[in-house]
Amino acid sequence: MALLEVEDLHTFFKTREGEVHAVDGVSFTLDRGMTLGIVGESGCGKSVTALSIMGLVPPPGRVVSGSVVFNGRSLVDRKQRELEDIRGRDIGMIFQDPMTSLNPTLTIGTQITETLRRHLNMSRDAARKRAVELLEEVHIPNAAGRLDDYPHRYSGGMRQRVMIAIALACNPKLLIADEPTTALDVTVQAGVLDLLQELRIEHEMAMIMITHDMGVVAETADDIIVMYAGQVVEHAKTLDLYDSPEHPYTEALLAALPQLEGEDVRHGRLTSIPGRPPDLIAPPPACRFAPRCPYAGQDDCAVVPPELREIRPGHWVRSAHPASERMGHPVGAR
Amino acid sequence: MTDLLEGAAGTGNGNEPLLRVRNLKKYFPVKKGVLIDRTVDYVKAVDDVSFDIYPGETLGLVGESGSGKSTTGYCVLQLLKPTSGSVSFLGRELTTISRRELRAMRRETQIVFQDPYASLNPRMTVGDIVAEPLVIHGIGDRRSRRRSTERLLEVVGFNPDFINRYPHEFSGGQRQRIGVARALALNPRLIVCDEPVSALDVSIQAQILNLLKDLQREFNLTYLFIAHDLAVVRTMSDRIAVMNRGKLVEEGDAEDVYTNPKDPYTKALLAAVPVPDPRAMRVRREERRKLKGALAEPV
Q1: Do B86 and B23 touch, CB atoms closer than 8 A?
Q2: pTM
Q3: Where are the domains of chain A?
Q4: Cys-Cys with A179: which of A96, A188, B57, B233 at CB 3.0–4.6 Å?
Q5: Tens digit of pLDDT for each residue in A269-288?
Q6: Residue B29, H or E segment
Q7: What is the ipTM of this complex?
């Protein structure tokens, strides 16, 4: 049995202009101990997918249909009270901005012990002792001495380490990390990513890592989902995805990235994607990438919505023109 | 072009730098006290930085937050007054010239800001924003300015039909095009690009970077390109300068700095960049392990 099964999830936001189809039919499964990377640009629905799983979609958003089964139990249509028992205990969460996700008026120690006391009914002393261990586990120097500091005394990277400590406090089976390193400098980011990987193995956790950065998930993820305009457009094993991307969007996204290595990048042009992502109130009727796709228009792909299909074992793609089916039409610099 | 610059304009050959920065320092005082502020310390945001930029080239200035890269850019443009040091542009010392001369000099030096949401006045139309530099410097009449504005918008790939619309009606990428058009309005020689694409998504980022590359070729522009993203800087720059805690730790030909970094900080910085290649990432993790200690994470 998979740890997490998401099936045909739809999350919409009611606005004055109409209903925004932020997540529109997302399905995937995640096995115990595995890491899934969800990548996509802003507004593609990757964060809302995570919030939907946890039952944290803010109004006016709402999970309209679909199912989320975690550890054999459905998470949708559950009372907030029940979800509160699961969140923080069975599912840990880390968000993008460590500056705003910690409460500035409470000490770091209070914020870690709060979780332990709420979920594990620990005594005050036991919780404090455990909090120090947790801070040591995320490599905070002088952990015991810093327990009673307020968040503003911690740097950005250290705050994110505290967030990780809180998320891991109850040994969750699943950790959802939403852009955990986006607000951090690259050298600090590397440290936090290394730490996450180390702890994930140690705690035998599954992880969903949400990011806009194709580099951040390249090493750590077992599987990667690429989202575009509220839908999964490609889902594959990590190596397979980077070696042979199938969806024109994934190809274009990889080609649009400036390269750190390579010759004479200075005088070349980047492969850009014309236009911009569609409006999710009235998305394109068929393939959502069709208006920007270099291969669209040769057939009915702008009329008939492409299904997410398994093009080879373990590699799913939602396009009428996956790379391996149009040989002789190489795209970009890949 | 402008009378004041006529004499200096001859320096535009390849041997003389367009911009020469020497021993630039910018210290911000740290003040304490209730009624009377005492300066108790200084934040050395820029600490003894020197570099040259030659006509038509791009110098990439990279560093992490707080390294002083943006402050350096502002000091070059005299948007911040340097604590000490020299900024010489077209052979003129900008730190000491009169306000009038500085104003004239500003025609030649423009800036594109990071945040296309905050850097455009929401109460001005696109046309007014792009024409504002022309108005300030008293160039042309209303009709000719309108023509220039339309042409500028066309150059940056922004539909001139939207000249009477307001910035909030456009996406980040389109707004950044407006910002670029405004920077081009006075036909400057030097443009300081301060994190011009860091607020944009990858697919849009590529469009803007390509635009900046094209404009450079077309108008023989010189860029001081400031960014934290090492891959972005690589694709834009002829030469690279790396800053760390206010100091310039390494400077050189872009290819050299990236393939053969000398400074331990540059090495650590390069090894930390996530690249979209699972195999390369594994190698980089090993490199980082070896370099451990070169970087102490702030606590």
Answers
A1: yes
A2: 0.88
A3: 4-221, 231-259+272-325
A4: A96
A5: 888 888 888 989 999 888 99
A6: strand B19-32
A7: 0.83
